[in-house]
């Protein structure tokens, strides 16, 4: 097949939806993976023939190898993997249970490892591929009350570098985008409910505003494109300067 095939996890909503839309606009067939079948169907209806979906809960680590085999049987190849799916949990440190912590780590870190491992097996055969992981400001500096999320996203950035050093000689590039505060329904709701945090966000963001989901999508597409053919192991903040703000 001459057409590129991409997987976007969490591709039916928020940042994942914007990423999926951008890849489709660039002529890439996108397979969106997510738990909410209604949202996935809606996205496919919007994007048309260059899109499809698999309703799947990535916490089911044991089911991931079969999922990737199913995609390979149907599409023949996987050229791009965007590890975007994630959950968050805002709780004071001492109130986070072992089960809370494990759940966030499983979705945000363990599933990234598991799906990447299975996809990489196919990419090694093709001697090419691009994986883009989605991190967060929670891995760039300390944010209170998101201990599990911070641990997971920090792990994603470390895994990006380790994967890049091992897999780049095999023709597979691994990069990472670390979004700052982006305008989504979830972030707007969270910040509107916490005026103190909202003021802090804007006060330390040199550009003085939140980003759009499209800003993240553009960065992801760059890493997937020929324009980034000599770029690997990079963590790129897309944050209006938030990570370096004072």
Note the topology.
Blueprint: E1 5-9, H1 14-25, E2 29-34, H2 37-47, E3 51-55, H3 64-75, E4 80-83, H4 98-126, E5 129-134, H5 147-167, E6 172-179, H6 185-192, H7 195-203, H8 213-224, E7 235-238
Helix pairs in contact: 1-8, 3-4, 4-5
Keywords for this entry:
246 residues; alpha/beta; Rossmann fold; seven-stranded parallel β-sheet; globular
Structural domains: how many:
1
> Count the helices. How many?
8
Mean pLDDT: 95
Please summarize the sheet with the most strands.
7 strands, parallel
Q: In angstroms, what separates the terminal alpha carbons?
A: 49 Å
Strand tally:
7
Report the portion of residues in β strands.
15-25%
Radius of gyration: 17 Å
CATH class: Alpha Beta
Global morphology: globular
Helix content: 40-55%
Low-confidence stretches: none
How does CATH name the architecture? 3-Layer(aba) Sandwich
Class derived from helix and strand content:
alpha/beta
The arrangement of helices and strands along the chain is EHEHEHEHEHEHHHE
CATH superfamily label: NAD(P)-binding Rossmann-like Domain
Q: Strands across the major sheet, in which order?
A: 3-2-1-4-5-6-7
């Amino acid at each position: 097949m001459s057409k590129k095939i991409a997987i976007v996890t969490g591709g039916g909503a928020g940042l994942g939806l914007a990423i999926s839309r951008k890849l489709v606009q660039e002529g890439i067939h996108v397979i969106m993976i997510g738990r909410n079948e209604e949202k996935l169907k809606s996205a496919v209806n919007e994007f048309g023939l260059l899109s499809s979906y698999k309703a799947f809960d990535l916490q089911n680590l044991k089911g991931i190898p079969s999922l990737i085999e199913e995609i390979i049987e149907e599409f023949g190849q996987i050229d791009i993997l965007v590890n975007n799916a994630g959950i968050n949990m805002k709780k004071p440190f001492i109130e986070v249970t072992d089960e809370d912590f494990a759940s966030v780590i499983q979705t945000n870190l363990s599933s990234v490892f598991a799906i990447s491992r299975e996809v990489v097996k196919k990419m090694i055969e093709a001697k090419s591929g691009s994986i883009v992981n989605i991190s967060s400001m929670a891995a760039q500096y300390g944010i209170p009350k998101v201990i599990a999320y911070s641990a997971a996203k920090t792990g994603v950035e470390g895994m990006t570098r380790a994967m890049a050093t091992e897999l780049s000689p095999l023709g597979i590039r691994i990069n990472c985008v670390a979004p700052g505060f982006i305008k989504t329904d979830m972030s707007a709701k969270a910040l509107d409910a916490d005026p103190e945090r909202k003021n802090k966000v804007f006060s330390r963001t040199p550009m003085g505003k939140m980003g759009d989901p499209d800003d993240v999508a553009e960065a992801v597409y760059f890493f997937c494109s020929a324009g980034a053919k000599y770029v690997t192991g990079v963590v790129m903040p897309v944050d209006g300067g938030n990570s370096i703000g004072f």
